[in-house]
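To: structure desk
From: M.T.
Subject: fold request, one chain
Message: Could you run this one when you get a chance? Sequence is below, nothing fancy, just the single chain.
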Amino acid sequence: MTTDRRDWIVAEIVGSISPSMDSQRLSSKCAEVAGVDGAGITLMSNGAPWRSLNASDQVSERLGEVQLSFHEGPGVDAHARGEPVAEPDLHSQGIPRWPAYTAPALEAGVRAVFGYPLRVGGVRLGAMDLHSRRAGWLKDEQHRDALMLADVVARAILLVQARARPAQVAQELWTSSDYQSIVNQASGMAAVQLGVGVGAALVRMRVYAFGISRPFAEVAEDIVARRLRFDPERRQTQRY
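Reply: Done. Structure tokens follow.
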């Protein structure tokens, strides 16, 4: 990669970062620079709940929620391994590499997916996912650009997080204070209802949202408003 190309990518990404980092601009720019149909950025830092930070479109948002719900997919593997992960043709798999992830991806018209770890040195922050409606590997230049994109995004996240107090996630890395307040309250209520920890309750909430094809935020709002309750004995939910 030439210096001019690297400088251009840095300028494009830095220019797309909003103060709150919660718009589609960042991930949309990643998809545009990499020459793919969509991109998503997920935070997977240790010590904090995994969450989708940014998605370029509804398909990327949906795939991000699947990964958060079932802890499988290209981004999850890239984060765990600390190296890029690629599946150039989801449709050609005999036994799906990611059973829970593959079906929704194909239903959404996605054929190829790629995960790039977001890391700075030994610090792992999450992953950037790219997807294409056409099967096939990324070209060499696309792959190099994606590596640079992941590096720039990771450094931007780390700079934002550096302003937060110890053991806290920077406010800019949450979708909004109202959103996070609702999620915290809903996960606490679900944890009490299920008799499990907050982390396990979050997973149960995400799986439920995925199963009924509803946005996770709406499920959290229903729990807080007491329109939805988890029943641990019947292993199901009750709506009021």
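Reply (cont.): The first strand starts at residue 38 and ends at 43. Let me know if you need anything else for the meeting.
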